[in-house]
Design brief:
Blueprint: E1 3-8, E2 35-39, E3 45-50, E4 54-56, E5 65-70, E6 75-83, H1 90-98, E7 104-111, E8 114-121, E9 124-132, E10 137-145, H2 151-162, E11 165-166, H3 179-194, H4 200-209, H5 216-227, E12 264-274, H6 280-294, E13 300-303, E14 307-308, E15 314-322, H7 325-335, E16 343-349
Antiparallel strand pairs: 1-2, 2-3, 3-11, 4-5, 5-6, 6-10, 7-8, 8-9, 9-10, 12-15, 12-16, 13-15, 14-16
Helix pairs in contact: 1-3, 4-5
C-alpha cells in the first residue's frame, strides 16, 4: 500500500532543474500550503503535494498507485508505476504519450530518463510527467484539470508534476543522452506522432516549437494542403472493446485434458489499470495484449465493475477462471515470465 508520510518542506529547486520553469518554488498562497509525500510502497514512486487541498482515494487493486481529487472538484492526480514490458525507450514513451488523444500540445520537455507533456485532451488541461528508471519501470503522474483553473493553481499543479521522483537509489541513468540528442529525439517523436494527421492544428503546434526544425518545410506544406480543403476528414480511431474471447490457456500447462474455464473461481490478473483518463485505455489494451500474444497467453479483458470481488474503476486483464487455486498458481508462474506483477485473485465474472 502507498504511504502518506508526515508533511515535509519543499525540495530544493535545483533538484528538479530539468523542468524549466516548473521547479519546486512554492511562493503563492496555494503553493505555500504544507506539503506531504505520497510514496508507493511497491515501486517507490514519489510525489509531493499540498495535503490540505487534496483527498487521497484508495490504492489501486494491485498496489501500483492511487488517485487524488482536489477538494473543489476541479482537478485530479493519477500517480502509478509499472514494468516497461515492451522495452520502449524514453523517446518512444514520449511518442506514445503525444499520441494518446491530445487535441493540442502546449509544451514538451525531455531530459535523460524523464519527460513531461502538457496540453489539452477531451477539453481538459493535462500535465503528464514520466520517469523510466534503471529497473525498466515507468513512473507516471498525470494531472487533469478544468480549463477554468486559474494560473496560480495551474502552477501549483505543475509543481506537483515536477516533484515526481523515485525513492533514493532507484533512479537509473539508462537512456541518458546529450541535450541536443534529447531535442532531436523529442522532435522526431512528435513528428512521428502527427505525420499522418489530417488536423492542421497539430502541424502548427509542431512549427510553434520547431519553426526551423527538420520537418518544418513538410509541416508548412501539409498545413497548406489541409487548409485548401482537398484533404478528407480524419476517421476517428475506435476505442478497444472488451475482448470476449475466452480461449483456454491451460494447454500451455501440459494438461492432458483442457480445463473448462468458468465465470467464477481463481483468476490470474496480469494487468489492472485505472479507466480514467479514458484515452489511456487504448495504450493499456494494446500493450497488454501485445505482451500476452508474444508469450502465448490468452488474456480476457473487461471492466473491474463486471467482477464481484474486484474494486470498480479499473480496466483488468485476466486469465481464467480456474476451479482450483493450484492450477491458477501454475498459470501464475508462467504468466510472471512476461507479467512480473501478475497475481491470483478469487472472484466471479458477472458479464454484461
Amino acid at each position: 500500500m502507498g504511504e502518506l508520510v508526515a508533511p515535509v518542506s519543499p525540495a530544493a529547486p535545483d533538484e528538479f532543474d530539468w523542468l524549466e520553469g516548473h521547479m519546486m518554488q512554492f511562493h503563492s498562497p496555494v503553493r505555500d500550503a504544507t506539503l506531504a509525500i505520497y510514496q508507493n510502497a511497491r515501486f517507490g514512486t514519489v510525489i509531493s503535494y499540498p495535503a490540505s487541498l487534496w483527498t487521497a482515494l484508495p490504492e489501486s487493486e494491485n498496489g501500483d498507485g492511487r488517485r487524488f481529487e482536489s477538494l473543489d472538484g476541479t482537478a485530479e492526480i493519477t500517480v502509478y508505476a509499472g514494468h516497461n514490458a515492451l522495452e520502449r525507450t524514453v523517446p518512444e514513451l514520449l511518442g506514445d504519450t503525444l499520441g494518446s488523444g491530445f487535441e493540442s500540445i502546449t509544451a514538451t520537455k525531455m531530459q535523460g530518463n524523464r519527460f513531461e507533456v502538457s496540453g489539452v485532451r477531451d477539453g481538459r488541461t493535462i500535465i503528464h510527467a514520466e520517469i523510466l528508471d534503471a529497473a525498466n519501470v515507468q513512473h507516471v503522474v498525470e494531472i487533469s484539470m478544468d480549463p477554468s483553473v486559474d494560473a496560480t493553481t495551474q502552477q501549483s499543479l505543475a509543481d506537483i508534476a515536477a516533484s515526481l521522483r523515485v525513492e533514493a537509489g532507484a533512479i537509473g541513468t539508462q537512456g541518458v543522452s546529450a541535450p541536443e540528442a534529447d531535442k532531436g529525439a523529442m522532435e522526431l517523436a512528435f513528428w512521428n506522432t502527427i505525420s499522418t494527421s489530417m488536423d492542421p492544428a497539430e502541424f502548427e503546434a509542431y512549427l510553434a516549437q520547431w519553426p526551423n526544425g527538420t520537418f518544418a518545410a513538410l509541416a508548412r506544406n501539409k498545413i497548406n494542403r489541409l487548409r485548401s480543403g482537398g484533404a478528407p476528414s480524419p476517421v476517428p480511431t475506435p476505442q478497444p472493446q472488451a475482448d470476449q474471447t475466452r480461449a483456454n490457456p491451460t494447454a500451455t500447462l501440459g494438461a492432458t485434458e483442457p480445463q473448462t474455464l468458468m465465470d467464477s473461481g481463481w483468476w490470474v490478473v496480469v494487468g489492472s489499470f485505472p479507466t480514467e483518463p479514458w484515452e489511456r485505455q487504448t495504450s493499456d489494451y494494446e500493450r497488454t495484449q501485445a505482451t500476452a500474444a508474444r508469450c502465448g497467453l490468452a488474456v480476457f479483458n473487461d471492466l473491474s465493475a463486471k467482477f464481484s470481488g474486484f474494486r470498480s474503476g479499473y480496466n483488468v486483464f485476466v486469465i481464467g477462471a480456474f476451479e482450483s487455486k493450484s492450477v491458477a498458481d501454475s498459470m501464475l508462474k508462467q504468466a510472471r515470465k512476461c507479467f512480473p506483477d501478475a497475481y491470483v485473485k478469487n472472484a466471479k465474472y458477472l458479464g454484461e
